[in-house]
Write a structure and sequence with these properties.
The chain has helices at about 5-15, 55-65, and strands at about 20, 30-35, 40. With about 70 residues, the protein is α+β, with helices and mostly antiparallel strands.
Length: about 70
């Protein structure tokens, strides 16, 4: 997915009261966190080996299932 896709998913997250953050280096490189800024907590992805991180596709699907 491209930068445009990342921005689109980030906007979806913001509309639903969440924040999309890059996971960083190492095992999480190229993955993202969905953060609930009110609670200051990362959302669980339910993905084996990546308990709290998402690919952009996984993040978009999670946000669709948890939309407000």
């Amino acid at each position: 997915m491209s930068n445009a896709d990342e921005k689109r998913v980030s906007r979806i997250a913001e509309r639903n009261g969440f924040r999309l953050e890059k996971a960083g280096h190492g095992k999480g490189h190229g993955r993202f966190y969905i953060v609930n800024p009110v609670e200051g907590a990362r959302m669980r992805s339910g993905v084996a080996d990546h308990e709290y991180s998402f690919s952009l596709e996984e993040a978009e699907a999670w946000l669709s299932a948890h939309s407000k």
